[in-house]
From TrEMBL:
Keyword match Aminoacyl-tRNA synthetase: no
Organism: Gossypium aridum
Domain GH3 middle residues, every copy: 241-309
GO MF annotation list: acid-amino acid ligase activity
Protein name: Uncharacterized protein
Length: 471
């Protein structure tokens, strides 16, 4: 996406508004620090010689971030050197270690997306013994080789046997429920995006945090930064963003009809629109691909709820299943798992057309609190059926007409989706902006998923469908 230097000034202005808004709802944020897991990605160049890098890397490497003035409301536990380390593993290690050392000062914990915060928790699960050793001895793991990171950590890391013993006690237990508030007891909220596809992570974050509020503060993309959530402590399902009209020129394409573009000032509450932007950096009437619903107004400025990304589909025949429908179907099916203290940690899907008829394949990674009382094969088959019952009428019609086969759930080993993320990052994805793809078709990814399958389950019956009578 094209950008220009002055765009950083505009984005910095939006960042500068985040904490003043948050401070209206959460007092005392100037009395501590934020534990944020932030990363950069290596830069490349286009064939024409232009610098190419993720938007967040551009911001973190700019003077706007590196030379930002001191703000007591916006102090991080992570030194700039750890964030700017190009090795994401060394960066994660150093940032988590800083967070553990300053655990009493942490007032908020976050990452760009919910998936990034969960990856950090998983990293702690795997490496806590080494963290405890480093803290006890005051020496940094030799696997962290970046000179600037080692230098800055030498000023922070001192022998602390008492803290090391505490980390060992908390992390050696099998039960990691409320681990965030156990280790960082003064945490007031999680700062993560949990709208859209990220809503899938809400139950897992609630488990690890003990139900801490989740603040979705800002709405942005690589193309343009859009606006703010002026009520950041609301429930994730109620998040609405107020678009800042000075960030770009905004137009909207009504999603339910073929009428022309609508200006920002002419939107109607309750209607859904596709977002169109013309940016200062050169994009002209660019279709971002986000579907938004107008929820109200702040003064005269319309407010929006993010509904879904457009055209994320599964399709076998005439059916078309988008991301929000798939998400809702999985949520409905997950209800059957509650009595077994089991939840869906992560999922993706693909349309299997190798056989006739083709069928939907849904990969589930499950979190089972009590392995001795996990869901049975019959229950998981009923989950398949419940998903089909939750899908749209065209899908169910095609199933009854036998043009689509029974929906299949493939349960994968724990940690599979972390491996999927690591694979994507090894191929160049940004650790900051990585999102689990909700539909996959890339052969190596499907091979990775299939190699981790522990059980397969199919819908045992046809979903309900009756033809509508014509008048």
């Amino acid at each position: 996406m094209p950008t220009i230097h002055e765009e950083l000034n505009r984005r910095q202005l939006l960042y500068s508004l985040l904490m003043p808004v948050m401070n209206l709802y959460v007092p005392g944020l100037d009395k501590g620090k934020g534990l944020y897991f932030l990363f950069i990605k290596a830069e490349t160049k286009t064939p024409g010689g232009l610098l190419a890098r993720p938007v967040l890397t551009s911001y973190y490497k700019s003077d706007h971030f590196k030379s930002r003035p001191y703000d007591p409301f916006n102090v991080y536990t992570s030194p700039n050197e750890t964030i700017l380390c190009p090795d994401s593993i060394q960066s994660m290690y150093a940032q988590m270690l800083c967070g553990l050392i300053m655990r009493e000062e942490v007032l908020r914990v976050g990452a760009v997306f919910a998936s990034g915060l969960l990856k950090a928790i998983r990293f702690l699960q795997v490496n806590w013994k080494q963290f405890a050793h480093d803290i006890e001895t005051g020496t940094l793991n030799p696997k962290v080789t970046d000179p600037s990171v080692r230098e800055c950590m030498s000023k922070i890391l001192k022998p602390n046997p008492e803290l090391a013993a505490f980390i060992t006690k908390e992390c050696s237990e099998e039960n990691w429920e409320c681990i965030i508030t156990r280790i960082w007891p003064n945490t007031k909220y999680l700062d993560v995006i949990v709208t859209g596809a990220m809503a899938q992570y809400i139950p897992t974050l609630e488990y690890y945090s003990g139900g801490l509020p989740m603040a979705c503060t800002m709405y942005a993309s690589s193309e343009c930064y859009f606006g703010l959530n002026l009520k950041p402590m609301c429930k994730p399902s109620e998040v609405s963003y107020t678009i800042m009209p000075n960030m770009a020129y905004f137009e909207f394409l009504p999603h339910d009809d073929s009428s022309g573009l609508v200006d920002l000032a002419d939107l109607e509450v309750g209607k859904e629109y596709e977002l169109i932007v013309t940016t200062y950096a050169g994009l002209c009437r660019y279709r971002v691909g986000d579907i938004l619903r107008v929820t109200g107004f702040h003064n005269a400025a319309p407010q929006f709820r993010f509904i879904r990304r457009k055209n994320v589909l599964l399709s076998i025949d005439f059916d078309k299943t988008d991301e929000s429908e798939l998400q809702q179907a999985i949520e409905n099916a997950s209800v059957l798992l509650k009595e077994f203290n089991t939840s869906v940690v992560e999922y993706t899907s693909y349309a299997d057309t190798k056989q006739i008829p083709g069928h939907y394949v849904i990969y589930w990674e499950l979190f089972v609190k009590d392995a001795a009382n996990g869901p049975t094969d019959e229950v998981l088959s009923q989950c398949c059926f419940q998903m089909e019952e939750s899908l749209n009428v065209v899908y169910r019609q095609c199933r009854v007409a036998d043009s689509i086969g029974p929906l299949e759930i493939r349960v994968v080993k724990n940690g599979t989706f972390e491996e999927l993320m690591d694979y994507a990052i090894s191929r160049g994805a940004s650790i900051n902006q990585y999102k689990v793809p909700r539909c996959v078709s890339f052969t190596p990814i499907m091979e990775l998923l299939d190699s981790r399958v522990v059980s397969k389950h199919f819908s045992p019956a046809l979903p309900h469908w009756t033809p509508e009578r014509r008048r």
